[in-house]
Amino acid sequence: MEKVLNTGPVVQKEKETVTKMIELYCLKKHHRHELCEECQDLKDYALKRLSHCRFGEEKTACSNCSVHCYKPEYRQKIKSVMRYVGPWMLLYHPVYSVKHIFNK
Ligand SMILES: [Zn+2]
């Protein structure tokens, strides 16, 4: 099976959103203006997972997805990021629809 990386607009948008969330998380939680090593690592991981998401442009919110492609440790991390920055995202980046990420 050939491997094609996702580059469509839906995935692209999710990448922007997850990047913003992690940046905000690091800023608020770790008080860093540039991503610390841990957050950088999480971001790289999240973007890679999106690039390889088997649903591509058909994907739903990751939290609704039946395929848990995240390793447990990263899953745990991204969960706390989302929980932490959720309210902030609405404030700073209302343009990004964070809502669907939270809809269970
Ligand atoms: Zn950080």
From TrEMBL:
The name of this protein is: Nitrous oxide-stimulated promoter family protein
What InterPro entries does its record include?
Answer: Uncharacterised_YgbA
Q: Which Pfam families match?
A: YgbA_NO
Q: Which organism is it from?
A: Neobacillus massiliamazoniensis
